[in-house]
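Morning F.,

Quick status update on the modeling queue. The single chain you submitted on Monday has been processed. Sequence for confirmation:
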Amino acid sequence: MPVRLEEDVVRVRQATRVAALACGLSLVDQTKIVTAASELARNTLVHGLGGAVTIDSVEASGRKGVRLTFEDNGPGIPDLNLALRDGYTTGGGLGLGLSGAKRLCNEFHLDSKAGEGTRVTITRWK
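Structure tokens below.
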């Protein structure tokens, strides 16, 4: 699913909610994954200069979940540790996007290289 326009952020939230509901996540867990998806979609659009997200239903060890992978070919993140620190921002916001998304998910993987883009994968398990 593309993340190129402001409307795409809304579509990502809606599609994430549908996937979370389909796998049986509670309302609280649905809200957590949708909130994380919204933050990461906005980051993909604003900082990554657009990209895409893949939303998958996953199953492992008898558990069901939702996995989202956000990818862009933007400028990348030069210092991952700094970017994950609460309050750090390059866009004038509160600096809680990446760190907040990480707290809202059961699994969080961030891979980024300056000049090559960013890939963030999150999973919320039932």
